[in-house]
């Protein structure tokens, strides 16, 4: 295997590692992974109509004994979404008290644009606070999705994902788009190695 092939293999390996970790945020107190419509966060390019349902899913894993607070929020002044189903409303904390290290759970919200904000983007943010003690706190926050909301009414059908949000031991789906990118890169990498070996 010549030097160029080694460089390509090394670069592709690093890229694959980065892609596999791009769906999660982590600190010394915990790990947070999120998706919207099964695409890994942060989802860009999503276009929604008024009343068109979509999902936000978050898996939280604790590395500490303590309390964990979870918040789904919108940064804008106008509330653009309504929660159809889920463990909380927008801007309402979910309190997980006295959990133990290794605790893990998945939350799923089903949302829809309410029509109060259209012809623009309305991000959905996730905030998670890990409290090891009263003054020993670490936070994770990021945008799960940044949909554009059209000034049109939705009239289609929607299939609800089958994941169980009450499960505390669920393995999160990496989303079809993340898996597809990794598969494509792996295929390219194998083709390059094969051709280099024949040269």
Task: Provide an overview of this structure.
The protein is of the alpha+beta class. It has 2 domains: 1-23 and 176-199; 24-173, Sandwich (Immunoglobulin-like). 21% of the residues lie in helices and 42% in strands. The protein is built from 2 helices and 13 strands; from the N terminus they run H-E-E-E-E-E-E-E-E-E-E-E-E-E-H. The strands form 3 sheets. Strands 1, 2, 3, 5, 7 and 9 form a 6-stranded antiparallel beta sheet that branches. Strands 8-6-11-12 form a 4-stranded antiparallel beta sheet, with no helix packed on it. Strand 2 and strand 3 form a beta hairpin. Helix 1 runs antiparallel to helix 2 (176-198). The radius of gyration is 20 Å and the shape is elongated. The termini are close together.
Return the average pLDDT rounded to an integer. 79
Question: Architecture of the largest domain in CATH?
Answer: Sandwich
The CATH topology of the largest domain is given as Immunoglobulin-like
Order of helices and strands: HEEEEEEEEEEEEEH
For the biggest sheet, the summary is: 6 strands, antiparallel
Percent range of helical residues: 10-25%
CATH class of the largest domain: Mainly Beta
Discrete helix count: 2
Beta content comes to 35-45%
The backbone outline, from C-alpha atoms, is elongated
Distance between the termini: 10 Å
* Extended strand count: 13
Low-confidence parts: 5-22, 162-186, 189-194
Alpha-beta classification: alpha+beta
- The radius of gyration over CA amounts to 20 Å
Compute the number of structural domains: 2
Secondary structure blueprint with pairings:
Elements: H1 3-21, E1 24-27, E2 30-36, E3 39-40, E4 47-50, E5 54-62, E6 66-73, E7 81-85, E8 94-99, E9 104-113, E10 120-121, E11 124-133, E12 136-145, E13 148-153, H2 176-198
Parallel strand pairs: 4-13
Antiparallel strand pairs: 1-2, 2-3, 2-5, 5-9, 6-8, 6-11, 7-9, 10-13, 11-12
């Amino acid at each position: 295997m010549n030097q160029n092939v080694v460089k390509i293999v090394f670069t592709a390996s690093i890229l694959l590692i980065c892609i596999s970790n791009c769906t999660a945020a982590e600190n010394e107190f915990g790990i947070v992974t999120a998706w919207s419509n099964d695409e890994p966060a942060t989802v860009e390019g999503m276009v929604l109509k008024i009343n068109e349902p979509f999902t936000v899913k978050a898996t939280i894993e604790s590395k500490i004994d303590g309390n964990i607070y979870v918040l789904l929020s919108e940064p804008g002044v106008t509330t653009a979404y309504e929660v159809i189903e889920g463990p909380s409303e927008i801007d309402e904390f979910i309190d997980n008290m006295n959990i133990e290290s290794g605790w893990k759970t998945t939350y799923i919200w089903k949302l829809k644009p309410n029509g109060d904000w259209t012809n623009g983007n309305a991000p959905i943010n996730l905030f998670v606070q890990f409290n090891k003690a009263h003054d020993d706190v670490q936070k994770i926050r990021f945008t799960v999705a940044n949909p554009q909301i059209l000034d049109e009414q939705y009239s289609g059908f929607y299939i609800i994902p089958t994941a169980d949000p009450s499960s505390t031991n669920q393995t999160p789906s990496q989303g079809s788009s993340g898996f597809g990118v990794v598969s494509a890169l792996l295929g390219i990498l194998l083709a390059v190695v094969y051709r280099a070996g024949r040269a």
